[in-house]
Amino acid sequence: MDLDDQANVSRLAEEKGTGEMIVILGQPDSNSAGLFAETVTRGDPTWAGPLAGVPLGLPVYHILEPEIKAQMDPALYQEHVGLMELSADVDDIIKWVKFYREGGEV
Amino acid sequence: MPDPAILASHYILAHGPDFVRYGSKPTREIESSPELLDQLTAALRPWEEVLAYPPNQTFIGNLTPDDLAAIPRPWTEHPVAGASAQGRFGRMIPQAALYGLMKLSDEFDLIAIDAALAAEARSALEGVFPHRLDRIVATPAGELDALIAAGSGMPLYHHGRTAGFLKAVHEQDASLDAHVLFENLACKATAVLAVAGVLAGRGLDPAAVDWLLNTGEEAVGDRYQRGGGSLSKAVGEVVGCINATGYDIKAFCSAPVHGLITAAAMVAAGLHEYVVVLGGGSQAKMGMKFRAHLRNGVPVMEDCLAGMAFIVGPDDGTGMRLRLDLTGRHPIGAGSSAQAIYQALVIDPLDRAGLKMTDIGRYAVEMHNPEITEPGDSGDVPRTNYRTLAAMAVFRGEIARDQMEEFTTRHGMPGFAPTQGHIPAGVPYLGHAQAAMHRGELQNAMIVAKGSLFLGRMTQLVDGVSFVVEPGSKTTS
């Protein structure tokens, strides 16, 4: 996750408190989705950004997860996410985002 | 009016292990954590490994993308036996040759190198590069020591020792900072080698080139016009394009595809006969993902500068026709979802010509080597793009859902280009496409490039362009 995004997440968490926040990811593969999910839950694993050593523990979901899809207008979802839903390895992405969301053991 | 064609392509890789520390990311991180330099240095590959690395051999044309796809990953552990630095349409050079090219491209005596490096550089370029070798001269030891001691600039390293110095031009001008000049000179030097190579490969007299379009990403200029300058003529001057002028095209990663379309339009209009499109390497991007590579225990693979050059001229049957009626563009109003981008770049031009997605033999997208990007957070970029194209083919009813993998394999290829912005943007496939067309194995290919305009913080937009190539007229008759 780039440093600007980390800084934004960090600032929002500070200003609003983590209780009101949820992170929705759109990464196209499980590797990057996992890294982003790890960053907003356990802290930046690359130790390069503002979230290094900052385990925010934010609830993190991927836009391809059924919980998120169910809350969106189906036509809009199809228009903007339909292609990714078909082309991405959805199960693997969800597996890794869920892993960090639920505090899985490495 | 002539039909425009890409007549020749040439790709170079310059190994620069001692340049990696000066990449943007390593510079910043080593400054805050000096112990990282030793870790970085220990994870760099020797020349022999870089030479035999399968994606590199693919980049210079000695392996086809299909050959690469058949080699098991990790490619770092499957070196190519008997690998050659001379490619079928490219070349690899060791670091001493890179320093030599920078020295002979240096018009302002910015670089000083010691006698041992000068001798090694001349010998490495003998028989490889025909111009200006007499300019690779050493600075007397006492003088060089004084420069280094004065400290106004940056030391240059070779195999870990201090072997030279790059002088800062103007202490108060950040646009002429030693680091900036180092990046610009590295870009110029690698472009110079690529242009010389493409002209020699085609047998085109440098004096026959009318126009030069540099598409590299470096910002040349001083503080009053940062990035407003140009490398095109600077490169042409070194290799003897005495009748050419030119300018630079700036469009982030999509600049080479913009450049090739512009060049083809110039030829088609009868404005110029031979246009050379070129791009040197991005020094700032060396070692960009080194932390991820160290974390994953793999070599730091962003250890080469790349360069490329293409000759665009009238179709004489030997090259590939560039179909100006089949170009794609991403207009401002198109939207930036993956669907919108590929609709504009791929589907719209095909629809105009009444073609199906499966009518295109091969698509060349951003050809980043996945072995470099996967340890970071970027995944396998070409594969993600090919899966997206396959999904679009499903939406259009051209293939069934269970044929997506087959589409990806048949119409795509593994990434084999270094992660240097404009370098991977579709165009690394042009040399392979031309070879495949000459073998009669390929009827057409679509080159697709995207650019991250938002990086400059002036717009949230992305950019993109595409074109289709097909065999030259005489090869099809």
Short key terms for the protein model shown above:
heterodimer, A: 106 residues, mainly alpha, two-stranded parallel sheet, 5 helices, 2 strands, 53% helix, 6% strand, B: 477 residues, alpha/beta, Peroxisomal Thiolase, Chain A, domain 1, 2 domains, 3-stranded antiparallel beta sheet, 18 helices, 14 strands, globular
Widest sheet, order of strands of chain A: 1-2
* Total helical segments of chain B: 18
E-strand count of chain A:
2
Query: How many separate helices of chain A?
Result: 5
Please state the CA-atom Rg of chain A, rounded to the nearest Å. 14 Å
Overall number of structural domains of chain B: 2
- Main beta sheet of chain A: strand number and arrangement? 2 strands, parallel
Q: End-to-end span of chain A in angstroms? A: 20 Å
* DSSP summary, beta strand count of chain B: 14
Major sheet details of chain B: 11 strands, mixed
Task: List the secondary-structure elements of chain A in sequence, H or E.
Answer: HEHEHHH
- What helical percentage do the residues of chain A reach? 40-55%
Mean pLDDT of chain B: 96
Distance between the termini of chain B: 20 Å
What is the beta-strand fraction of chain B? 15-25%
Total domain count of chain A:
1
Question: What is the molecular shape of chain A?
Answer: globular
Mean pLDDT of chain A, to the nearest integer, reads 92
Largest interface: A-B, 20 and 23 residues
Q: What gyration radius of chain B follows from the Cα positions, in whole Å?
A: 22 Å
